[in-house]
Design brief:
The complex is a heterodimer of chains A (313) and B (54). Chain A is mainly alpha-helical. Chain A contains 14 helices and 2 strands. Chain B is rod-shaped and about 55 Å long. Classes of the chains: A mainly alpha (313), B mainly alpha (54). Chains A and B meet through helix 5 and helix 7 of A and helix 1 of B.
């Protein structure tokens, strides 16, 4: 691979010299291409950038819908209020706990599901279709059905487990119920991403290791996992970003009561219950920065998106 | 038991587990929709009184 890889400076020098020698017709075609792409590019930038810029602008103001005439620029005060409030750090802690536990379980179960879907010798189509059913259920419907299933009055789970108390009446039980809902709903998506990574593992390597006497576990840990690392990191990145913004499941279960309030629930309460656009926007921007930080850690630190190399095996 | 039979048994178990875990909650949603308002919160998995009026 290294023999055919040019040094980094070479392509840029070639491109520069090619640009200088573009014909008039090529330049006109390039200009036309820019004009044709421009409307879509402008719409994309506007749609993604406008809400972010608006939220940042609002977060720098005292903007409260209860006192519309008192709106004024206050700099970073809203960020100071949010970051010094104990509730912010409690909610960050709740969100991290829910994210770490649910994504870890999803990774393990998703890997098992992906291996079954990849290796199964009969009923492959049926298993793949059935395994994806939870992902097709609307998130609010899934949360509502699990909330009813865990409830002592209306649910079948307390009866099945022989519980005398309501699992949703205390923090631990509510966390378990929320994590079960998240895992059930999102494991198929994790499995799909991992299945794509499994397809990249060459069968020849597995066969060669088998001939050399490697056990199933050794082949999994020393061949499959290293070759799947980019797919695993991408799957973890997608699910972690999604799990960190958890809202609907908690909102359906108890709207953040019993110590389950996440950052998104705090954001919702500040914006829509307290009608404080300034503070709510500050929470939104901080959540955005946290999500961006997670993405950077995954992409730079763990190498999401790097192409797999068979040399690793 | 031969290796082939063991393999079939293992895969069958995996299929059953996937089907149960994936479909039981969906069945619960469907059964809930077929319960009458009076029995919707009675805690039974299968409705005692079926209705399509919902």
């Amino acid at each position: 691979v290294s023999a055919v890889t040019a040094p980094p400076s070479a392509p840029s020098a070639q491109t520069t010299s090619r640009r200088k020698h573009l014909s008039d017709r090529a330049r006109a075609e390039r200009r036309l291409a820019y004009w044709l792409v421009a409307p879509a590019a402008i719409v994309m930038v506007a749609v993604t950038a406008y809400p972010i810029i608006d939220a940042v602008a609002l977060s720098l103001q005292r903007a409260d819908l209860r006192f519309p005439n008192a709106t004024k620029f206050i700099g970073l005060s809203n960020y100071g209020h949010v970051l010094t409030a104990p509730v912010w750090w409690q909610d960050v802690f709740h969100t991290v706990i829910l994210t770490v536990i649910s994504v870890s379980i999803q990774l393990v179960l998703g890997m098992c599901l992906a291996l079954v879907m990849h290796r199964i010798i009969f009923g492959r189509g049926l298993v793949r279709a059935i395994a994806l059913v939870p992902y097709a259920i609307v998130a609010v419907v899934a949360a509502e059905s699990w909330q009813l299933a865990f409830s002592l009055q209306s649910g079948w789970i307390p009866k099945l487990l022989g519980l005398s108390g309501d699992p949703l009446s205390h923090t631990f039980g509510t966390y378990v119920a929320i994590i079960v809902t998240e895992v059930w709903k999102n494991t198929p998506f994790m499995a799909l991403l991992l299945l794509a990574g499994l397809a990249l593992v060459p069968d020849e390597l597995q066969e060669a290791a088998k001939v050399d006497g490697a056990t199933t576990w050794e082949r999994f840990t020393k061949i499959t996992l290293p070759l799947m690392k980019p797919a695993i990191v991408v799957a973890l990145l997608f699910r972690t970003l999604d799990a960190f913004r958890i809202f609907d499941t908690i909102y359906i279960f108890n709207q953040g009561a019993q110590g389950t309030e996440s950052i998104s629930i705090l954001n919702y309460n500040t914006l829509l219950d307290r009608l404080n656009l300034g503070l709510g926007s500050a929470v939104s921007v901080l959540l955005f920065l946290l999500v961006a930080l997670i993405a950077i850690v995954f992409i730079v630190g763990l190498g999401a998106g790097r192409a797999p190399s068979t040399e690793a095996a | 038991m031969s290796h082939h039979k063991k393999q079939i048994g293992g895969w069958s178990t995996a299929i059953v587990v996937i089907c149960v875990v994936s479909l039981i909650p969906v069945l619960w949603i469907v059964f809930l929709s077929l319960k009458t308002p009076a029995t919707a919160t009675d805690g039974s998995f299968i409705p005692h009184q079926w209705t399509l009026s919902n």
